[in-house]
Write a structure and sequence with these properties.
The protein is built from nine helices and two strands; from the N terminus they run βαααβαααααα. It is globular and about 50 Å long.
């Protein structure tokens, strides 16, 4: 959570999260009206990864939300026994929101004022998926994901970084750069 962002009403969740922190919200720090969650379709059944992001994105189409810049939960990112850590050891899975947004657009269920930012957020998620594929050693699948599912215009820097890593010389440059960057 970013505490330097003021408390506010947020009408465009996608633009807000892209500008502040690209992953929408953590489930343990969220309050949702039951009726809105039901209207949004609840959590997708059978999704192994990304079901929370998919749900929050569908909730964004229900209307604005309120952001409160106070710590409301503690999230232990990267703990070796976490579900996320276990999933990251397996082959990455595409984010469910890619299919969800495609279906919602086909049915005209995306509010017009959110179409552009929702598409940019889907692009971000797919660029992250390409990064996960690269990290797992599958450069060909990452290249295919970039080519078929990502838009250069939405995030040119991240796109070019991912694309260069899909080729051996780009991957070597990336590995060298990681040696020079101090770890946090």
């Amino acid at each position: 959570m970013k505490t330097d962002v003021p408390d506010q009403r947020v009408d465009d969740v996608f633009a807000f999260v892209l500008a502040t922190y690209p992953y929408a919200v953590h489930p343990s720090s969220l309050m949702v009206e039951r009726a809105a969650l039901i209207r949004a379709g609840l959590f997708p059944v059978g999704a192994v990864m990304g079901e929370d992001t998919d749900t929050w994105c569908r909730l964004a189409f229900e209307g604005p939300f309120r952001y409160v810049a106070e710590p409301t939960a503690v999230y232990r990112d990267g703990h070796p026994t976490s579900v996320l850590a276990g999933q990251l050891r397996r082959r990455p899975l595409p984010p469910p929101f890619d299919r969800t947004l495609t279906a919602l657009l086909r049915h005209g269920a995306v509010p017009p004022h959110l179409m552009r930012s929702a598409g940019r957020y889907r692009n971000f998620l797919m660029l992250e998926y390409a990064r996960q594929l690269l990290d797992s050693g599958d450069a060909e699948a990452a290249r295919d994901t970039l080519r078929r599912h990502c838009r250069l215009a939405d995030d040119p820097v991240r796109y070019v970084r991912r694309f260069l890593r899909t080729w051996s010389f780009g991957h070597r440059l990336y590995a060298l750069s990681r040696q020079w960057v101090p770890s946090r």
